[in-house]
């Protein structure tokens, strides 16, 4: 890759991702994805589980170096180092919450400000004298952000003791502490109740109104379609369609992608056809033999899996439902891990 901060033409966009491809060995998780976010926009990124949404975020924020493609923020090519990306003006939250579990709510936000103070992250984490001084200057702003996110009353609680929904809000407050021009939210309402989801929707609108553009991944379609100016749909790493809520909702391929119904020209169709053909060939002699109807046991499997759980990924969340497909975002799996990134 070239130098991290080459100035390119920005076309006025806050974010401009061009031809972003991410391969892991033989797997292409993200394939030639273009996406722009304009100032003042809230853009949604949806798609079935495993579509490559989080991987795409990781490419935008420097956690991964894309195999191909470029990412620019306000016309500046972004670095592949996460802390430099944050410093440039792009902040994020994580699908699997990453808070400093044993720090207080206020301290978590103060650590989020380290990119905006001359003290570094280690000084913030080790709470040296420089940080303590910077902390006093930052505290007023951190408290403003806690008011803004509705967490002010919890300022001295340990992050680990917050209910799940509040941990997600704290991640947002901490991300905002770096004063970003673009905020990336990865499933901000996963695990929230409907009331918390509604509050988060209002919070995102308020963030946008204060001048921060937002790119949000979410499975809750009501949340997405209420909130977003534009929605892009990823399926098997490729952008299937992008448009307003109306355009995306009316697109049969999107519904098919969620319901797992094949459609002509779907990404991965060719590979799927090859696999089908190979399987048909391999099973052909046996499939000629009659199969007794009672060959399979009717009771649930011993491991507790009920019949029907072998459905294609994404079938559990047709548009319009509030449930997250798959249970990979179950609260316990997302418990704060104190990950000191
Ligand atoms: N670090 C990694 N190494 C190998 N494969 C990965 C890695 N991260 C993600 N993948 C794969 O990339 C695909 C997309 O995953 P992900 O971006 O998490 O999807 P989504 O967020 O849309 O559910 C999946 O098949 C996943 O297993
Ligand atoms: Mg994800």
From TrEMBL:
Low complexity bias (residue ranges): 280-321
Region of interest (Disordered), ranges: 263-341
Keyword Transport: yes
Organism, as annotated: Streptomyces ochraceiscleroticus
The keyword Magnesium is assigned to this record: no
Keywords, alphabetical: ATP-binding, Nucleotide-binding, Transport
GO-annotated molecular function: ATP binding
Biased composition (Acidic residues): 267-277
Descriptive protein name: ABC transporter ATP-binding protein
